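We emphasize that the prediction below concerns an isolated chain of 164 residues; any contacts that depend on oligomerization or on bound cofactors are therefore not represented. The input was used exactly as deposited, without trimming of termini.
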Amino acid sequence: MVAVDTATATQLLSRPVSSKDETMRRLAHVLSRSLAAEGVSDDLIDTLEDVLGDRPAPAPANDGRKLNSLLLRFGLPLPRRQQHTRSAPPLSTEEAARIATRFNRATTQLMQVAPHRVAMYPTDELRRLLALRDERPSEGEELSHLRRYALAIVDILDLMGDDE
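Result of the prediction step, given as a token string:
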């Protein structure tokens, strides 16, 4: 135990004391700035690349080689290549849930970090991000929903700029 004389005790007790609300606001501000300084994880970047990257579609069963050989045999011109409208293969339920969980965690982080990393508060972008977080896609629409969600995250990351 330490003994304090009356003059020191009077000086310590006369200092202004902050309210708990003010202290908590300062602490939240400092912690938010610290979180903003940490940046975006590589895991999020990898997940964004997975969702926005090209997903290999199954090759068409009939590529027309037999027809082309017949046309060439008779001296006829080959038909122009037709563009096959291939849709990306659907995500598995587990993979879609894993990606959605990762994006939900990123949304929480971006809601805290973005205001400290942009010049003007990104109201519309954050509103869009929250709407996509709360949206529940129907079966078969998971990939398009996750791509929209990923693009909303990328929009906010673009506003935040590069921290390096």
